[in-house]
Amino acid sequence: QGQLVESGGGSVQAGGSLRLSCVGSGYISSRNCMAWFRQVPGKEREVVATHRPDRTTTYADAVKGRFTISRDNAKNTLYLQMNSLKFEDTAMYYCAAQSSLYQCGNYNYWGQGTQVTVSS
């Protein structure tokens, strides 16, 4: 089993910054693909950024150039640095990991979520 615990959400004005953290435990390691998702009420959960075991990263078009995903394998922690936040970034943010090693796209470990609220 793997566990994920997010932190770092909060309220910020448009143009501000936040950094989310996600600590993994159990069977989650550097060999597992991890990602950040977000969801607003009434909409489907969408992927924000992905960090692959080979350290390559991908981003949703809506956050490219503003968000940065990174990982500290020694601390088993995934980060999402969010800069130049916009009102439309308001959402519940979730950390996710995939149990099958070196594969991405079918996440089965999820954190509880952390709320990000951006005021315009």
Ordered list of secondary-structure elements with their pairings:
Blueprint: E1 2-7, E2 10-13, E3 18-26, E4 34-39, E5 46-51, E6 57-59, E7 67-72, E8 77-82, E9 91-97, E10 109-110, E11 114-119
What this model shows, in words?
With 120 residues, the protein is mainly beta. A hairpin with a 4-residue loop joins β7 (67-72) and β8 (77-82). The model has no long low-confidence stretch (mean pLDDT 94). The protein is built from no helices and 11 strands. The chain is globular, with a radius of gyration of 13 Å. The strands form 2 sheets. Strands 2, 4, 5, 6, 9, 10 and 11 form a 7-stranded mixed sheet that branches. Strands 1-3-8-7 form a 4-stranded antiparallel sheet, with no helix packed on it. The termini are far apart.
In round numbers, the mean pLDDT is 94
Shape: globular
Q: Report the helical percentage.
A: under 10%
The protein's oligomeric status is: single chain
Distance from N terminus to C terminus (CA atoms, Å) equals 40 Å
Count the E strands.
Answer: 11
Unreliable segments of 5+ consecutive residues: none
Radius of gyration (CA) equals: 13 Å
The total count of helices amounts to 0
Major sheet summary line = 7 strands, mixed
Q: Give me the secondary-structure category.
A: mainly beta
Q: Estimate the strand proportion.
A: over 45%
N-to-C series of helices and strands: EEEEEEEEEEE
